[in-house]
Design brief:
By secondary structure, this protein is mostly beta strands. The chain has helices at residues 24-27, 64-71, 120-123, and strands at residues 17-19, 29-30, 36-43, 46-48, 51-62, 90-104, 107-117, 132-142. Strands 1, 2, 3, 4, 5, 6, 7 and 8 form an eight-stranded antiparallel β-sheet that branches.
């Protein structure tokens, strides 16, 4: 769920949205790691006929518990070739583009491309080889 912030008057079709998706910035999502993360995303859709292009820029803050759970090495897990590692809170930055196509009134196809650069305490960890994660997604949507 996105919480939009419209920067232009509602009467105009163009708008800039400030999204917190899915409300992670409001309640700070918690999982098994007991860590917290918050995401701030800026995106805007540009229409061109039956196509839409939505570039985005996002920043995701993760706390030290989250980094330790997913990227850290505890004393118990440490070995002679892999030392213990505790990370600190950090910010990951994502750049992406979502392309949508509506071939018929009730049908839509989405392609999402993105790259996320991991924050310094994640990329300095012993378990991470690459500091950039790439993602590709394809979706089909039928509106009943």
């Amino acid at each position: 769920m996105n919480v939009p912030f419209t920067a232009t008057p509602p009467s105009r079709q163009q708008s800039v949205r400030l999204c917190v998706a899915p409300l992670q910035g409001i309640h700070l999502q918690r999982w098994h790691s007991e860590g917290r993360r918050a995401r701030l995303q800026l995106d805007r859709r540009f229409a061109a006929g039956s196509f839409g292009f939505s570039p985005r820029l996002a920043a995701q803050w993760v706390d030290s518990k989250y980094v330790d759970y997913y990227y850290g090495v505890t004393q118990h897990e440490a070995r002679s070739w892999c030392a213990a590692y505790e990370g600190d809170s950090t910010v990951n930055v994502e750049l992406g583009m979502r392309i949508d196509w509506q071939p018929a009134p009730r049908h839509a196809v989405f392609i999402d491309l993105g790259a996320a650069r991991m924050g310094s305490t994640i990329k300095n960890g012993l378990l991470v080889d690459e500091d950039i994660q790439y993602g590709v997604g394809v979706d089909y949507f039928y509106r009943f």
